[in-house]
């Protein structure tokens, strides 16, 4: 059944599945919405298009790509991220500021703690999320 965009958004906005339990269903629904074949329909043996494709990592070792299509893309699902820090590289490592966590940023004077918090505030305000605040410490 082909989903409309609004049906797709409605279905997945309410979903609270983990990455492992939702990734394949999400991708198959995305394919259906876009009128594209999903991996098993396009390649029943997984030589050109597959879910959970075994891959070697750039820095050594092995793992699995959530969705892989030869010469096109590798798609890796990640569980939902927290509030953005405003620094994409930091968010990749930490998944943003997570609910229930206390994030302490400490460093010497003049290395950019206040700049980081301002960038975080801008990133969050621009998407309508709460703003962070800083308490300066005395020596």
Strand proportion, as a percent range, falls in 5-15%
- The chain-level mean pLDDT equals 82
Enumerate the strands of the largest sheet in spatial order, edge to edge or round the barrel.
1-2-3
Q: How many individual helices?
A: 5
Q: Find the count of extended strands (DSSP E, 2+ residues).
A: 3
Summarize this structure as a short list of keywords or feature phrases.
single chain, 139 residues, alpha+beta, 3-stranded antiparallel beta sheet, 5 helices, 14% strand, elongated
In short:
By secondary structure, the protein is of the alpha+beta class. It has 2 domains: 5-75, no CATH class; 81-139, no CATH class.
What does this structure look like?
The protein has 139 residues and is an alpha+beta fold. The protein has two domains: 71 residues, no CATH class; 59 residues, no CATH class. It is 35% helix and 14% strand. The protein contains five helices and three strands; from the N terminus they run H-H-H-E-E-E-H-H. A three-stranded antiparallel β-sheet has the order 1-2-3. 10% of the residues are buried.
Give the topology, please.
Layout: H1 5-13, H2 19-34, H3 39-42, E1 49-56, E2 62-69, E3 73-75, H4 88-94, H5 113-125
Antiparallel strand pairs: 1-2, 2-3
